[in-house]
Amino acid sequence: MEKLVIKGGRPILGQVEISGAKNAAVAILPVAIIASKGKCIIENIPDIEDVNCIERILEDLGCEIKRENNSVSIDSTNIISMDANTEDVRKMRASYYLIGALLARFKKAKVDLPGGCPIGVRPIDQHIKGFEALGATVTIESGAVKVEADRLIGTSIYFDVVSVGATINVMTAATLAEGTTILENSAKEPHVVDVANFLNSMGASIKGAGTDVIRIIGVKELTGCTYSVIPDQIEAGTFMIAAAACGGEVTINNVIPKHLESISAKLMEMGAEVHEGGDSVTVKAKGRLKAVNIKTLPYPGFPTDVQQPMNTLLCISEGRSIINESIWEARFKHVDELKKMGASIKVEGSVATVDGVDKLIGTVVTASDLRAGAALVIAGLIAEGTTEILGIEHIDRGYPNIEEKFRSIGADITRVTI
Ligand code: EPZ
After folding, report:
1. Domains plus CATH for the chain?
2. Distance CA 192, CA 252 (A)
3. Is residue 348 classed exposed, middle or buried when 0-12, 13-18 and 19+ CB atoms within 10 A define those classes?
4. Is 246 in the active site?
5. Catalytic residue among 117, 225, 246, 315, which?
6. Which of 26, 78, 327, 374 could hold 94 in an S-S bridge, CB 3.0 to 4.6 Å?
7. Model-level pTM?
8. How does residue 117 score in pLDDT terms, banded at 50, 70 and 90?
């Protein structure tokens, strides 16, 4: 087991490179198996545990996977199984993207129900609704989702809730359906657009991704391609918030500034300076920032995935902030750990009231999930004294080389084996 040890209270300064987006990569890799001919070469893949996990899952299904630096090649021409039932499948959320891809290509799949971060109930009713509307029979049998269809036929589907996963999964299944599918009330997240662009590079015909209406004209088959994953909006947002919290000046490179607008706007409202470059943002802050209210919303609203890191910054901001978490009802597991460090936070249902304190004090804390871990790293960076973070396997699922990246901008953070 490992832990992170952080000696806090130093400003962070310099430049940091953002990796490829986790939530795009963990969708694109399983979706790649839809190609019945040729290899997919996916570039800008982040070096994280969730990607390793997906690679193992794909190998178990019979894909040939080769990893070279940040590039992964997937040859799925000789897939031997449509039944994904390993421990890896059960522990990962994104394994559900296998359902859409296998259903499209083979008209059948059996995939164990997915796991993921413990941030609330994670239903898949909208995925099922979409697959059924396309003509599939869906059953849940001994903890697995079983889908089968003689034919998939394009249709109009209106999602009851805005869901990233359902949008990607049903869009994927519809690429090989007969005729036209229209998805309404679709998610607009950058990684939805990235998966659509990837599928189009394989020969699909998808228009409108990034708006709430996506139109897919079914094609006969998809073939391998070379594709590069977009930069990680959430990793970038985490570094932006860290820079604002530590009172430093950090240029965050390899980003799409447009994807970060809701985060930039909040940091500026708090009194930080944010300057956008072509593919970078620079965040500069000095002293205590002002409290603000946050409501998490689907893109382009404030992302739920940076709510927890933002909560840390609000802990030391001046005044009272209200956080309204409207996507995941249990995304406050970091709060008790922040309280151990001196934070004043009260959670009632999906709302947290944060009263800013002068400082946090280092202690031993435990990450309960991925973004809780990121929130605790930022807390350690600003706290007086030493913070030890346990449960860092959650952080490694989604942040590549987090300690090296923070060290490169002046943080005193080390990984220690325990
Ligand atoms: C994706 O999860 C991300 N995960 C999450 O990232 C992220 O928090 C979430 O989107 C929202 O942006 C991956 O991409 C692997 P949803 P997903 O379907 O697809 C409800 C992180 O930290 N819903 O958009 O599972 C659901 O309960 C993580 O990187 C239904 O009701 O999220 C939630 O309230 C964790 N029925 C809302 O929709 C459904 O069928 C949004 O969920 C599906 C979802």
Report:
1. 2-19+231-417 (3.65.10.10), 22-228 (3.65.10.10)
2. 23
3. exposed
4. no
5. 117
6. 26
7. 0.97
8. low
The residue whose CA has the least distance to atom 13 of ligand 1 is 23
Which among 275, 76, 285, 97 has a CA at the least distance from the CA of 173? Answer: 97
Nearest in space to 51 (alpha carbons), one of 75, 76, 69: 69
Task: Tell me if 70 is assigned to a ligand binding site.
Answer: no
Decide if pLDDT at 143 tops 90: no
Comparing CA positions, the residue from 19, 20, 17, 18 lying closest to residue 229 is 20
Residues 6+ apart with CB under 8 A from 397: 48, 49, 50, 370
Residue 209: C-alpha distances to residues 112, 183, 191, 194, 308 (Å): 28, 10, 10, 9, 28
Rounded-to-integer distance, Cα 162 and Cα 209, Å: 13
The residue type of 290 is K
- How far apart, in Å, are the Cα atoms of 199 and each of 39, 193, 261? 13, 10, 26
- Using DSSP, state whether 272 is helix, strand or coil: coil
CB-count exposure of residue 56 (10 Å: 0-12, 13-18, 19+): middle
Burial group, residue 407, by CB count within 10 angstroms (0-12, 13-18, 19+):
middle
Cis peptide, bond prior to residue 123, ω within 30 of zero: no
pLDDT at 116 over 70: no
